[in-house]
Amino acid sequence: MRLHDLAPAPGSRKNRKRKGRGVGSGLGKTAGRGTKGHKARSGGGVRPGFEGGQMPLHRRLPKRGFKNVFQTPVEIINVRDLNRFASGSVIDQEALFSAGLVTRRARQVKVLGQGDIQVPLTLKVTAASKSAREKIEAAGGSVEVG
Fold this sequence. Notes:
Number of helices: 3
Strand order of the largest sheet: 1-3-5
Mean pLDDT: 92
Low-confidence stretches: none
CATH class of the domain at 74-145: Alpha Beta
């Protein structure tokens, strides 16, 4: 087999329909849109989700759940994530943000006790769980909540 023998599989390559290019093309005059009506017009056609005036599915289904608009979003980090910091360093929200552990500076940060910590650190966060506080203090560090 050589390069000039290569050809696409039969039926895999079809010419595109050239609409509105004369009656001989089979798609001339109205270009497959029928005669008049909303869908025949430029920009015509119904919006997504429109069901011809029938009550649409998204309005037929009941609403579920509850979204508390007053909740304060809290970023969560685990004790195991703190091992990347140097021993004896002071860790605040800015340090956590620059290390990529929290996504936004303005959010509150809570430390949870999953994993272990080997380095003593001084942590300045919004909140810490009891187990996280115990593990950090057992490693020789301290937690300042505020």
